[in-house]
User: Fold this.
Amino acid sequence: MKLELKGITKRFGALVANDHIDLVVEPGQVHSLLGENGAGKSTLMNVLYGLYEPTEGEILVDDRPVTFNGPSDAMAAGIGMVHQHFMLVPVFTVAENVALGNETTKLAGMLNLEQTKRRIREISDQYGFDVDPDAVVEDLPVGVQQRVEIIKALIRDAEVLILDEPTAVLTPRETDELLGIMRQLTEDGKSVVFISHKLREVKAVSDVITVIRRGKVVGSADPSASTTELASLMVGRSVSLNLNKAPATPGEETFVVENLTIASATGPALLDGVSFGIRRGEILAVAGVQGNGQTELTEAIMGLQDHVTGSIRLDGEELVGRRTRDIINSGVGFVPEDRNVDGLVGTFSVAENLVLNRYDQAPFARGVSLRPAVIEANAAEKITEFDIRTQSAATAAGTLSGGNQQKVVMARELSRPLQLFIASQPTRGVDVGSIEFLHRRIISERDVGTPVMIVSTELDEVLELADRIAVLYGGRLMGIVPADTSRDVLGQMMAGMSADEATAQHTDSKGGAK
Assistant:
């Protein structure tokens, strides 16, 4: 099936999310849409899937114009979509989820799940999915849940499958398996629209790459193009993707976590006996698939979690039981994973956000009175130092781009001498150019002797920044390994294997290959 978009424009008030986009997806092709978060990729696919009505333009299927009034129309035309956040009912079985919206019945109106189970087994066997129709979805690994979403589309005879940031929640091994599935689908004549901002994956699987920037198609690229070329197309200027950093020269271990446990009232502990230390002048990167205890770990350190047992010591002082304000004042800089919820006050100015952690202290306050001139002077200095793109220091922080919002948070947290710096998902939703800048600032903080903890679900980022890597799975620490540990070993650890087991298996497989 040939799919074509002609002049697709989507406006939300004054915001133009898609601006006259032309796109052709040929049968049997992986067509990748590459662009940073906020570039308009997902909006375009939501138009294609009938979730949004285009402001202008038309959609053609096999050269015939079509109109989609909802996802059911798109599915009827042979288009399926796997959303970044899965549309599954956790307590239902695989078969029940697949049947939803596509129910077949027996006599007397009884649901015919046997027919659905048979089709699931057929598709699972055809593509090597290994999905049990009777399994309850909430008991399945994330990668298998994603396969259930793909089965939902294929059982409805999808000829074009849209995958929206499908690798965001997968381990490296699951990612490689998904890329293989995409190839199998195209070999069967189906087409895949792969939406991503991950250059390595796009290069590995694509037949055609279309780059979108600020709602417009800015060019096409061959999969053989270098990552530097692709990054430059995405950002609109030359970008260096190689972070040149000197080897760490660690000092004494000043931050120590011992047997940290967070109890849960409804199930297993959110964190279970986690212990590690960080030395001055080194970066410990915490890796893992989202939802394995990383958020709870940073919140426990910052005094934002209840039911915490164990010990968290900074320079010999116990942090467990202390208020968040006291922890900040002890010299902890913290970049939270969701800047819009926890990092910024969107309606406050850039200048005000830059002093949120010290607004009541000298030199920004005298007694109970703020000193506006000093706050403005601080903002002018930080705007220049961190290259924050804003009309003025008085601009509301919530109106800035994601990358510039993150620079505001980073500038605030790095504006004073620190005893510990924690950054959770430091470049989430940030363009390639801003990533380059933020990574350099993190390395600079390490190089002045600060212990640094980075939490990231992006394995490329972990490998780029880390001096050592800790992997969390199910709230437990699988081990701490050197920064040059292979992706295969890290992937096994992210799937629940201990460091020793993963390393031994990797060594055995290399030996077997010889």
